[in-house]
Amino acid sequence: MKRLIKVLFVAGLATQCSFLFAENNAEQNPLSIKQIMESVITPATNTLWEIYDPKTDEDWERLEQAALTTITAAILTGQGGSGEGDMMSVKEPGYQAFNQLMINAANDALAAIAKRDVDALQQAGDDLYPPCEACHLTYNPAVANQ
């Protein structure tokens, strides 16, 4: 029940944020895709990759939070941002495809976490990396070269 409440809360928050982005143009949106990536997605995905063998309830809770955060932030990055070129990037089918693959992998991680299935969690983590790297190489090569 607690997990369902979290999922519904995150889904509601993501929906509200997507309406906010849809209603505002890029100049009014204070967040760039880069800011969302660096401050939200990177820490969340790092958690998914670093806790590869969860042992405690706290580990599983951190993983669940990371997966939910990744999904929410990916929904936001799919809407665009205030950074230079952000609104052009989100119009690209390739960008949207990479973004959706990130959401899919995070959803797979969330399902694995709910079942406490370490193998499925590891597979979801493995599935998460390629779209992230490919998107960076295509839309922000400076990040990929760091």
- CATH topology name, in short, is Four Helix Bundle (Hemerythrin (Met), subunit A)
Q: What would CATH call the architecture?
A: Up-down Bundle
Based on secondary structure, the structural category is mainly alpha
Number of strands: 0
**The CATH top-level class label:** Mainly Alpha
CATH superfamily: Cytochrome c/b562
**Element-by-element helix/strand order:** HHHHHHH
Q: Please, how many domains?
A: 1
What best-fitting shape do the alpha-carbon axes yield?
A: elongated
Provide mean pLDDT, rounded: 85
Distance between the termini: 42 Å
Instruction: Give the strand content.
Output: under 5%
Helix content: over 70%
Main beta sheet, described?
Answer: none
Low-pLDDT windows of residues:
18-27
The helix tally amounts to: 7
Measured on Cα atoms, how large is the radius of gyration? 15 Å
Topology readout:
Layout: H1 2-23, H2 33-50, H3 57-77, H4 86-89, H5 93-115, H6 118-139, H7 141-144
Describe this structure in words.
- The protein is an all-alpha fold and 146 residues long.
- Helices cover 78% and strands 0% of the residues.
- It contains 7 helices and no strands.
- Helix 1 packs parallel to helix 3 and helix 2 packs antiparallel against helix 3.
- The termini are far apart.
- The model is unreliable at 18-27 (pLDDT under 50).
In short, what is this structure?
This protein has 146 residues and is an all-alpha fold. The chain has helices spanning 2-23, 33-50, 57-77, 86-89, 93-115, 118-139, 141-144.
